[in-house]
Design brief:
Layout (H helix, E strand, L loop, with lengths): L1 H16 L21 E5 L3 H6 L6 E5 L2 H9 L5 E5 L5 H7 L1 E6 L4 E7 L4 H13 L3 H8 L19 E5 L8 E2 L5 E2 L1 H12 L4 E5 L2 H9 L5 E7 L2 H4 L3 E2 L4 E3 L1 E6 L9 H10 L4 H33 L4 H16 L2 H12 L7 H26 L3 H9 L4 H31 L11 H12 L3 H28 L1
Parallel strand pairs: 1-2, 1-3, 6-9, 6-10
Antiparallel strand pairs: 3-13, 4-13, 5-10, 5-11, 5-12, 7-8
Helix pairs in contact: 1-3, 11-12, 11-14, 11-17, 12-14, 13-14, 14-16, 15-16, 16-18, 17-18
């Protein structure tokens, strides 16, 4: 997985700096045989990654999302973007300066993924796909035909939602539209399926690899991503009956396309169109909620860790040391995934609460060490003097030791708070739409890395500055 993240980082960096692949002629390829010697951009976990990894005459540029794969081709890091033929609409191709070079000869069945053993849901979905007239829905989204009337009838408020995970944010398959609502071919089908069962429809965005883990752990009912039914995938998950057939598409840069968007047009596309700014504001509120609650809970737990570290009981000191070694010994992301997909897998606890608990446990370790070191920095004579003056141990600590320890420990504590704020950017791995995930959703729709990344960078910088400023005011006051 490491090379995937490095590749994505290179794509985003080159997008921001505005590097280009130079003036070249449009690549003329008409079949899979013409791909020999070229570099193919594919998304991680896709069928095309598996297929072309077996060919020695081509190179693969693997990215975490299709949006990054498109950018790789536009920036000259790869020659051809390989994906499903419906991934880039004619409008997107014209705007991005790309075109489809050819379509593959294969025709794959497209279906929805279901957890193995959930035969009841699979049977219901297959029955729906067999009886529901899907031709109109497919024609509307794929061929821009007329919209199909929404089903009528209310859904019981207390019904359990149909939990769906989408692994792409690309029109016309699945994308976040006006008001943050999921739209496209697959959300439309699944929303109607949920309505037929009298259940609310719920869809979240997640990377493919994480989505499959969530499905297997019972965190989701259905995964959709224009999934091809292959023998390899059938070993891990079950599939519904196919609802569509799709062919591979091979996209290249159209050197004859002179489309260029101004900065104002790019700002409008990334923020105004479909009210995408709401994704940023909603994600910002989620980031603030997780950060502040994690700090509060982690501080309380950190006081307990500090008490254990300074206890006269050897087993309490041993527990605090072992706890710190455990937390410091594993990556925060791995710990978050374990908490969500293993420990709290079947508890019904929301992903946000799991994230708060996880970050609080991590913060408790660092804050407990800071508190203990700050208290130890106060000379023991201060405590002895307070007791000699007739103060109780509690008053000696709160009135003499604590104010001095606060001045020693607060700078480090402020740094840990800022580090926690930045660490929350990984919560998208468990389907939480924080400000970082919001920028990913926008970027995957607009294929513009600059504007969303700059906005998120500014937001994190301002939040970190405000957090430090607030804690420094407390320090000056003390």
């Amino acid at each position: 997985m490491k090379h995937v993240y490095i590749a994505a980082a290179l794509v985003m960096l080159l997008s921001v700096t505005g590097c280009s692949g130079g003036k070249k002629k449009t690549l003329d390829i008409r079949s899979e045989q013409d791909l020999s010697g070229l570099t193919l951009a594919v998304s991680n976990g896709s069928y095309y990654q598996s297929k072309y990894s077996k060919r020695d005459d081509v190179k693969l540029f693997v990215t975490s999302t299709d949006a990054d794969a498109v950018q790789a081709v536009r920036q000259g890091l790869a020659d051809v973007y390989v994906s499903d033929e419906v991934m880039l609409t004619r409008e997107d191709q014209a705007r991005l300066g790309m075109k489809i070079a050819f379509r593959g000869d294969e025709a794959f069945d497209v279906a929805f993924s279901i957890r193995k053993g959930n035969e009841s849901l699979r049977t219901q979905l297959n029955s729906f796909l067999a009886n529901e007239p899907l031709e109109g829905i497919i024609d509307h989204w794929v061929n821009e035909g007329p919209a199909v009337e929404e089903p009528a009838g209310d859904i019981p408020a207390d019904a359990a939602p149909l939990r769906c995970i989408c692994c792409m944010n690309l029109s016309p398959i699945s994308f976040v539209g006006e008001g943050g609502q999921w739209m496209g071919l697959e959300p439309d089908i699944l929303r109607r399926f949920a309505h037929s069962m009298g259940r609310p429809f719920e869809m979240k965005y997640q990377d493919f690899s994480s989505a499959i883990i969530a499905l297997q752990a019972g965190q989701a009912d259905i995964v959709s991503a224009c999934l091809f039914v292959t023998e390899e995938r059938q070993k891990s998950v079950d599939f519904s009956n196919p609802y569509y057939k799709c062919r591979p598409g091979y996209f290249v840069v159209d050197r004859d396309n002179k489309t260029h968007l101004s900065l104002g047009e790019r700002l409008k596309m990334n923020l105004v169109t479909e009210n995408r700014w709401k994704l940023i504001t909603d994600g910002l509120l989620e980031t603030l909620k997780i950060t502040l609650l994690s700090i509060l809970l982690g501080t309380a737990l950190g006081m307990g860790i500090c008490a254990c570290k300074r206890s006269r009981r050897k087993w309490l000191r041993g527990f605090a040391d072992a706890y710190g070694a455990f937390i410091n010994g594993i990556p925060t992301l791995v710990f978050l995934l374990i908490m969500f997909y293993v420990i709290f897998a079947n508890t019904g606890i929301s992903a946000s609460l799991v994230a708060i608990i996880t970050f609080a446990l991590c913060f408790a370790s660092s804050s407990g060490s800071i508190f203990s070191s700050a208290i130890s920095s106060v000379p023991s004579g201060q405590t002895e003097a307070g007791l000699a003056l007739g103060f109780t141990p509690f008053k000696t600590f709160t009135g003499v030791v604590f104010p001095q320890a606060l001045k020693h420990g607060l700078p480090l504590y402020a740094s840990e708070c800022v580090a926690l704020l930045k660490s929350t950017s990984i919560v998208g791995y468990i389907a939480i739409q924080d400000v970082t995930r919001a920028s990913d959703l926008i970027r995957s729709r607009t294929f513009d890395a600059l504007i969303p990344l700059v906005i998120v960078t500014i937001l994190y910088f301002v939040l970190a500055w405000l957090l430090r400023k607030l804690l420094n005011l407390i320090l000056i006051k003390k």
